[in-house]
Amino acid sequence: MPVISNYRCNQAFQEHVTNFYNQFPEGITHGFICAGFLDVRGRDSCGGDSGGPLMYLNGDRWYAVGIVSFGYDCGKLGYPGGYTRVSHY
C-alpha cells in the first residue's frame, strides 16, 4: 500500500470531513502515517482493524511501521487510512 504525504492526507480529510479539526486540532501531524490507494476503492483498513499493524517488507524482514488508527468510510475513493507512526513513540 503506498504511503501518502501528510500534506495530501490533510487536504483529503479537510475538504470533506466536517468535524476534522474537532478530532485533529493540529491536523495530521508527524505522529501519523497515511497510506492507501487514493484512486482504487475497497483497499483499506476498516472497522475492527483498529490496533492492527501496518507492515513494511524490507528484503526478507517485516517491520511494524504503523498501527491502524483512523479513516473515513472504509475504502472510500480519495481517502487514505490513518495509522499511528510507531517510530514516533
TrEMBL record:
It is found in: Secreted. Residues 1-89 form the Peptidase S1 domain. Coiled coil: none annotated. InterPro entries: Peptidase_S1_PA (IPR009003), Peptidase_S1_PA_chymotrypsin (IPR043504), Trypsin_dom (IPR001254), TRYPSIN_SER (IPR033116). GO terms for biological process: proteolysis. GO terms for molecular function: serine-type endopeptidase activity. Pfam families: Trypsin. GO terms for cellular component: extracellular region. Its main location: secreted. SUPFAM superfamilies: Trypsin-like serine proteases. The keyword Iron does not apply. Keywords: Disulfide bond, Glycoprotein, Secreted, Signal. PANTHER family: GH14088P, SERINE PROTEASE-RELATED. This is Clotting factor B. The gene is CFB_13.
